[in-house]
């Protein structure tokens, strides 16, 4: 069968429908290149009257093919006993490939329909169209129905967090605040499953299985789920709905994978999370990101935005329709409500994650977390206490903006997996660098990023760091060689005049080399993804200590001395 490129079963809400869906990726070359008479016979058989399929290989034929494939799916479904079926068709970056999606209630029969539709496309040029469509419908009708979807309707409140950057930190902050409230909290993310702060199962659980495992624990009273792009696209969301959703931002990352090639398409994927927020709940959206703010058009929930600008037109718009906003006024995290005075929550100087407001990205994460916590019903005093006690260290936020002291050298570790992440990391490094001292950066990324992004990371590193060393992530090369990664990083570095950059096989080796080069007051940053624990152990083994909030504040003050 050549027309069926992929058949994927999505267990829950997804890019195409807010319920379990079959996603077909179809090669329509046969239909695109078929004689016009054949295309017209197919159109007549499936009820497309007065169709004008255009000549083979033309743009008109491609558009006809998309319409005809959708109608073919409906025709096979109807003739096999399904009275109504929603079908959506999306183009891809290959003009001969289409994605076709339709909801399902019976797993085996729904998959059989996908295979039957592909068989029709395969036999267009060799069989009678009437007969092959009839045979496809009979094949589906006679198939075993199979199991129903396993999508879970939650029995407890759920806060779902998505976005390109900041979702892990934001969800960790929310979980910490909820635990401060005295609740038993379950949390799933790319690291694993956590119950009350303890890792109970390691692995990437940002898809539907993570939510399912949390909700299966009868002791959990509140769930916080980190929902990644891959989980939505490859499996669907495992829950029928959430009570509060958070979208942190949409920036360039993972483009070119699973048919998502642009930021607008990526925003569509992220929008699935607020789209399934219950009507009585709240969708917390970044008002400073236009793609995220636009999601207000597709939500049923009440809108709650966050913005660093209290006078933002987006904030005014939301207040005018009865929503809420969290912002910064006179250095205070503050909540705005319609026809009411601003409610001060906590001073940014008292929130360790923001470095006294220095970290713009963590200010935004703080605003998002405070919004979600208040929206789910956590008392204001508890939210304040939780924000004041959540620290940027390996205990509360492993792998994200972790600070250490190695003698008079500062070390910053962060995932920094894309442009926005590296920008945030460099902002923090500069914020603790004493006058006259240097930035030394361990540069690295996973191998499935686009060439352009890898070159851009090299360019950013060369523009802002005084010394750069490449540290590879052996278990995350994802089909690329180290030499290919080096070439792309170095292309970006050389574009801004930085050459002769050393490359190391591991992240820890690059860290060790940079620390060896660092002097008093210098700041070493490590883009760490693969060897987080090994890096922690290396730092501890060389006399390093994690910075507490007081130490961090002292570093920030010293960096501001002119």
Automatic annotation (TrEMBL):
Residues 161-373 form the Mur ligase central domain. The keyword Nucleotide-binding does not apply. This is Mur ligase. It holds the Pfam family Mur_ligase_M. The keyword Ligase applies. Residues 399-527 form the Mur ligase C-terminal domain. Keywords: Ligase. It comes from the Bacteria. InterPro entries: Mur-like_cat_sf (IPR036565), Mur_ligase_C (IPR004101), Mur_ligase_C_dom_sf (IPR036615), Mur_ligase_cen (IPR013221). One of its GO terms (molecular function) is acid-amino acid ligase activity. PANTHER family: CYANOPHYCIN SYNTHETASE, MUR LIGASE FAMILY MEMBER. The lineage of its organism: Bacteria, Bacillati, Actinomycetota, Actinomycetes, Propionibacteriales.
């Amino acid at each position: 069968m050549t027309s069926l490129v992929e058949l994927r079963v999505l267990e829950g809400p997804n890019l195409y429908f807010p319920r379990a869906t079959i996603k077909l990726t179809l090669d329509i070359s046969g239909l695109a290149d078929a004689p016009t008479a054949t295309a017209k016979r197919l159109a007549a058989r499936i009820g497309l009257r007065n169709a004008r399929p255009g000549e083979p290989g033309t743009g008109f034929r491609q558009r006809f093919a998309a319409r005809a494939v959708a109608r073919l799916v409906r025709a096979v479904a109807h003739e096999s006993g399904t009275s109504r079926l929603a079908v959506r068709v999306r183009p891809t970056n290959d003009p001969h490939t289409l994605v076709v999606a339709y909801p399902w209630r019976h797993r085996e029969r729904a998959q059989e329909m996908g295979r039957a539709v592909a068989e029709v496309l395969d036999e267009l040029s060799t069989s009678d169209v009437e007969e092959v469509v009839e045979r496809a419908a009979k094949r589906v009708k006679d198939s075993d129905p199979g199991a129903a979807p396993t999508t879970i309707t939650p029995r407890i409140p759920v806060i779902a967090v998505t976005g390109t950057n900041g979702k892990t930190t934001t969800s960790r902050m929310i979980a910490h605040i909820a635990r401060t409230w005295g609740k038993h909290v379950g949390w799933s993310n790319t690291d694993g499953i956590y119950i009350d702060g303890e890792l109970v199962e390691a692995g990437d659980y940002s898809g539907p299985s993570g939510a399912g495992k949390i909700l299966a624990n009868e002791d959990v009273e509140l769930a916080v789920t980190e929902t990644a792009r891959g989980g939505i696209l490859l499996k669907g969301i495992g829950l029928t709905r959430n009570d509060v959703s958070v979208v942190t931002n949409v920036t360039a990352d993972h483009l070119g994978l699973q048919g998502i090639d642009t930021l607008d398409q990526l925003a569509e994927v992220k929008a699935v999370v607020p789209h399934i927020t219950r009507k009585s709940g709240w969708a917390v959206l970044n008002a400073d990101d236009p793609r995220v703010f636009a999601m207000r058009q597709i939500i049923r929930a009440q809108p709650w935005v966050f913005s660093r600008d209290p006078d933002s037109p987006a904030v005014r718009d939301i207040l005018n329709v009865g929503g809420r906003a969290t912002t910064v006024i006179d250095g205070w995290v503050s909540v705005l409500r319609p026809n009411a005075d601003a409610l001060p929550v906590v001073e940014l100087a008292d929130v360790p994650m923001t470095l006294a407001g220095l970290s713009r990205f963590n200010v935004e994460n703080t605003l998002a977390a405070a919004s979600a916590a208040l929206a789910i019903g956590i008392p204001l005093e508890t939210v304040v206490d939780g924000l004041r006690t959540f620290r940027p260290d390996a205990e509360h936020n492993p792998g994200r903006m972790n600070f250490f002291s190695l003698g008079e050298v500062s070390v910053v570790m962060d995932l920094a997996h894309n442009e926005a992440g590296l920008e945030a990391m460099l902002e923090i490094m500069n914020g603790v660098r004493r006058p006259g001292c240097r930035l030394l950066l361990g540069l690295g990324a996973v191998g499935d990023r686009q060439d352009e992004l890898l070159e851009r990371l090299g360019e950013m590193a060369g523009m802002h760091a005084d010394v750069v060393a490449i540290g590879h992530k052996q278990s995350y090369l994802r089909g690329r060689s180290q030499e290919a990664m080096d070439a792309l990083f170095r292309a970006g570095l050389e574009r801004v005049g930085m050459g002769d950059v050393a490359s190391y096989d591991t992240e820890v080796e690059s860290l060790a080399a940079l620390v060896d080069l660092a002097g008093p007051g210098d700041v070493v940053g490590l883009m760490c993804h693969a060897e987080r624990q090994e890096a922690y152990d290396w730092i501890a083994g060389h006399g390093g200590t994690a910075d507490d909030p007081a130490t961090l504040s002292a570093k920030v003050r010293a960096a501001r001395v002119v």
